[in-house]
Amino acid sequence: MGDFVISFNNVVKKYEKTLALNKASFQVKKGEIFGYIGPNGAGKTTTIRILLGLLKPNDGEVKVFGYDISELDKIKGRIGFMLEERGLYENLTGYENLEFYSILYKVPKKIRENRIKELIELVGLSGREKEKVKNYSTGMRQRLCLARSLLHEPELLLLDEPTTGLDVEGQKFIRDFLVNLANNKNVTIFITSHNLYEISQICTRIGIINKGEIVACGTLSELQRAFDRKEVEISIDKPLQEVEVPLRNLPFVQNVKEEEGKIIVSLENKDKLPDLLLWFTQNNIKVWKINEIKNSLEDIYLSIVKEEK
């Protein structure tokens, strides 16, 4: 298994006539933040439920910390999770909620109080822990859920849409919090989200699932190379009208257009960029600036999902 905390190999999960996972495969390395994205109904929540031992796959192999998922007693104490169903007790205070769950997680009594206080401070709820949860804002509830998931100092954290409903400040807090956990505590984090900006900002690798299949997986740079737009943005000393026709006639140029006053040239492939620059030089056209255009994660995601429909 090497350094893989999660190994998900050719996993199949069926619900009656619905194929929720279709030979889905991916691995998650120790200490990384792995983003798992896809449309509603793609299989994200099913994957998390299998990793938590709440569902059994029909086929394939699932290992966590090197143990088969069926050996749940060797795994569950090392996993923290935060699902959309929050499971907080409204009429208990924030502190009482954490105290209750620390008992369920079998946190030793001698360290329980200090652990709860440490987490309350860590998630930014100091001074609010004695208030009842029914009076908490959405952001405070999310922070409390994060604290709850960390009570037993898990090595793996499974998060399903952790920033849903939060304002910009709340989203940033949770992003920074997760990066700190991974970098400074070596916690491995598996996160699903519809916020693609968030995923692109914090995740070391990203898996894209659609219709139960993993259709792409890698770092953002690897995904950008795999889904390269082959476009460059150019600023020159002549208007587009003067160069558009001869540019289009070049054998390695596929398209020329103008966006916000800048010329966008689509190349056969990026290796033809020196040929393009040579053409400008030979025609006494000054190039002030040239930028490669890379697909954003949103571009990549939408192209995959659209293609798969």
TrEMBL record:
Residues 6-236 form the ABC transporter domain. Keywords: ATP-binding, Nucleotide-binding, Transport. SMART domains: AAA (SM00382). GO terms for molecular function: ATP binding; ATP hydrolysis activity. InterPro entries: AAA+_ATPase, ABC_transporter-like_ATP-bd, DrrA1/2-like_C, P-loop_NTPase. Belongs to the ABC transporter superfamily. This is ABC transporter, ATP-binding protein. It comes from Dictyoglomus thermophilum (strain ATCC 35947 / DSM 3960 / H-6-12).
